Amino acid sequence: MSRSVNTLTRADLAETINRKMGFSRAESLDLVESILAHMCDAMGDGENVKISGFGSFILRDKKERIGRNPKTGVEVPITPRRVMTFRASQLLKERIAKG
Asked: What is each CA distance from 41 to 1, 36, 45, 65, 71, in whole angstroms?
């Protein structure tokens, strides 16, 4: 697999599916795009996404709060917003720790 510098891309995922599953390159890329679109749609609808053995993409609503401009020191309100966090599964953490 010819990866970009330390980055796994959609094309890399499609290439792996192509080699391991025998789908055509176009079918493999469509499969990757379909999975990612389904995940995005679910999170867009406010659902968390859990991939067993990999991790969870969790949505959190943050309240409005006061922040400070680090350059000027002026206090400014930070608007409420929804953020996504990723929590790796224990299996993934162990695999990363092995190096």
From this structure: 29, 9, 6, 28, 38
pLDDT attached to residue 4: 52
Contact 66, 78 (CB under 8 A): yes
User: Are 55 and 86 a contacting pair, CB within 8 Å?
Assistant: yes
* CA atoms 38, 41, 43, 45: torsion sign: negative
What number of residues does the chain have? 99
Cβ neighbours around 32 below 10 Å, total: 19
Sign of CA dihedral 64, 57, 95, 11: negative
pLDDT at position 3 is: 54
| Each residue's pLDDT expressed in tens, for the chain with a length of 99 residues | 555 568 999 999 999 999 999 999 999 999 999 999 999 999 999 999 999 999 999 999 999 999 999 999 999 999 999 999 999 999 999 999 997
